[in-house]
Amino acid sequence: MDPATVLEQGGRYVFVRPDAEGLAWLAERAADGRITVEIQQVFDLAAAPEAHRLLEEGHVRGKLVLSL
User: Fold this and answer.
1) Is 61 in contact with 40 (CB distance < 8 Å)?
2) pLDDT truncated to tens, each residue of the chain (68 aa)?
């Protein structure tokens, strides 16, 4: 989802480079609840094809999680 769409829907767009400083910033905010992630559904690894199908259809709101 692009930043403009996120903002239009009342969300906040956060971009962090994958370096130690950026990841520490992100981890701090996640730990204290300032950043949350919406999880739509958790799948067993065997259901990975179903999760991928949902992603490809584009009807996902939140994250799809594969459980090992």
Assistant:
1) yes
2) 677 777 888 777 777 778 999 889 889 999 999 988 889 999 999 999 999 999 999 878 889 999 99
